[in-house]
């Protein structure tokens, strides 16, 4: 996505501006301080922003990340949000902060851009037990003007939740890497049968059978949690979940413990003959989890 606001400016930038100082207000009450900044290439493995529409960015960025390893680590937390397609401007908004375009003044996202992305994406994050983070508090960004990045695609292109859209916890592909990344980012992983499902207060409550439960990853679960295993799917009261159309057989369930409740992050039907699933379960503890920092699963986006 090319940032329309800065398209002409980017084309006019010269290599002579590779190094210079620029102010960052740190989003706080108009207070500015100066840090030495440099222009660097956006690396191809910075998945969040490598195709954003310009090739060079500023360090430190507008979130005060001072090194490329730090940018990569923190930005990778937000990649799953792009896959959810909660708003057309999600990448524009996030990359304006993580990989700001090289200009002689910092160009922040406008408050309106933050608000439309927040209003569409916060419910998705909430499904996983994460609030919209304070570092992206929209009140910290400037009102619309000629010097901030405005909404690019308009409110009418927001992807609104609907009853036909599959629940976020049920959108999982049966690929080994994807399953293992989910395992990494979950507090607990359990193979279980489901006794019953109840819908209440806009969410689903899954009650496991007492028998044939197998904890593959215990995490913070206590004995009282596992004795009568009850899990919750937030914002999943009306959306379809094909995995749960038939409760016969077993399920591979991954989740987080939030405020004393067990929230479902991902649910798969257990398939004995599925080689990808068998491989993931067998090698889940040897997978390099430290290389993955998914957003609203397991690591705080702050």
TrEMBL record:
Disulfides per UniProt: 49-95, 114-138
GO cellular component term of the entry, any: extracellular space
Single GO biological process annotation from the record: cell differentiation
Pfam families reported in the protein's UniProt record: Fz, NTR
Domain FZ positions: 34-151
Broad class of the protein's primary localization: secreted
Record-stated family: Belongs to the secreted frizzled-related protein (sFRP) family.
Protein name in UniProt: Secreted frizzled-related protein 5
Protein encoded by which gene: SFRP5
